Amino acid sequence: MAKKITARKTDYSQWYQDIVKEANLAEHSPVRGCMVVKPTGYAIWENMRDALDRMFKETGHQNAYFPLFIPKSFLSREASHVEGFAKECAVVTHSRLISTENGVDVDPDSRLEEELIIRPTSETIIWDTYKNWIQSYRDLPILVNQWANVVRWEMRTRLFLRTMEFLWQEGHTAHATREEAEAETKQMLEVYRTFAEDYMAMPVITGVKTASERFAGAVDTYCIEALMQDGKALQAGTSHFLGQNFAKAFDCTFQDKDGQVKHVWATSWGVSTRLIGGLIMTHSDDNGLIIPPRIAPWQVVIVPIYRNDEERAAVLEYSNSLCEELRDASVRVKVDDRDQYKPGWKFAQHEVEGIPVRLAVGPRDVKNAKAEFVRRDTGEKQLISRDGISTFVKNQLIGMQHELLEAAKERTKNETREAGSYEEFKKILNKHGGFIYAHWDGTAETEAKVKEETKATIRCIPLHGESEPGKCMVTGKPSERKVLFARAY
Questions:
Q1: Could you report the per-residue pLDDT of 352-406, keeping only the tens digit for each?
Q2: What is the pLDDT of residues 437-488, one digit of tens each?
Q3: Which ranges in the chain are annotated with CATH 3.30.930.10?
Q4: Which has the least CB within 10 A, 18, 134, 345, 458?
Q5: What does the pLDDT read at residue 82?
Q6: Furthest-apart CA atoms within the chain: distance in Å
């Protein structure tokens, strides 16, 4: 397999695109701005989805499904929500086509009485539904998640990181009290943090967004922020405390234990296929994709090597028995027995696709009850014994998972700095990029000035760490604590 991956130092953007292509993750579709997620890319998403789904259900949530189409009038009920999404909405205006000399055209007589919006997010359609589900405090809380696709009209797209249509999950919960809703918001943020670090081996910083960066219609938006290898930040997940904004917009009330009628308190939270972009940029190298074992579609690939039919039969039998043993040990493993490709081609393909462990088996290995072991992240190669192979491989996978996280943590630590002045801030940003902690006076004007002049934004106000009174790096005005700046995707 001929590798066509640009070096990161040469062109990071092209390196990213090359990995998406060569690792068979996704490709552009005939519809501008949309993508075709290929089987390998979708298998990674399935493993992410399955892990998150278990975590959601362990915290009491259930899955449901709501319509793709939203009446236009629904979006106008919550003012900040419609303002935030109006420019990104795809609108359905007609219901059918007619045949013409040139093929088909829109039937002018089929114009809808009310246009339909293809969901950019589902708060409005869900809260119109919840008002029918909720009458009493006994109906609360509602803890529902939806796995779906959404459409947000984008002019500049990049596979996985920003596309017009993407896959995601969106949780929508209803509560009797503010305290319950706020606790839910923070709980789901912690679920995302745990998933990012324990499954993706991607360290994140948790925090709350500034007013200008929060979700349209939210009271508070919490986020996890990760740092990519090029020094740019990636917002990897968000959890929103919606207050009573949507409950009031859709007249969703309940009768409490004292017989008083009150509006419901709400949250929403979500992650998307953008996580696959984060995975690529956190771990991969110039040879291709690197996938943490816990979310790798295949954790081990076995490559049989032989010269003739006699060797082939013996090597395949041995390889298949290895495969069965590892599978019995709950390892996701396959035998690459494709005769049309030579072993060297297979090695290169498995490396590009990021399979964590490769086992090569030849006639001598069969005779000596051995296998050649290679780990994708380190390139470590060693001859291992068949005896105890499942234990050895599982320990290596656990070690790889841990070491990828530690390496990413160390890189993030090394690329995190502090700035005491605006000039120092700009020097660090232009020379190194990365995360920068600096004081901010809390005003939208200062935030906008930094963004306009440097393209850096406040990624979050970190939840952890002590308050540290100081002076804003731009205005010199008092500041209660440092916030986290970075250029971002």
A1: 999 999 999 999 999 999 999 999 999 999 999 999 999 999 999 999 999 999 9
A2: 999 999 999 999 999 999 999 999 999 877 889 999 999 999 999 999 999 9
A3: 25-283
A4: 345
A5: 80
A6: 83
Q: What is the rounded distance in angstroms from the CA atom of residue 166 to the CA atom of residue 154?
A: 11
Residue 115 to residue 111: CA distance in whole angstroms: 8
CA proximity to 357, closest of 372, 339, 337:
372
- Residue 359 pairs with which residues in a beta bridge? 302, 373
- Whether the per-residue pLDDT at 75 is higher than 60: the answer is yes
CATH annotation of 416-486: 3.30.110.30
State the number of CA atoms in the 13 A half-sphere of 362 facing the CB. 8
pTM over 0.85: yes
Domain 25-283 CATH class label = alpha beta
CATH of 294-411, one of 2.60.40.2140, 1.20.58.100, 3.20.20.20, 3.40.50.800: 3.40.50.800
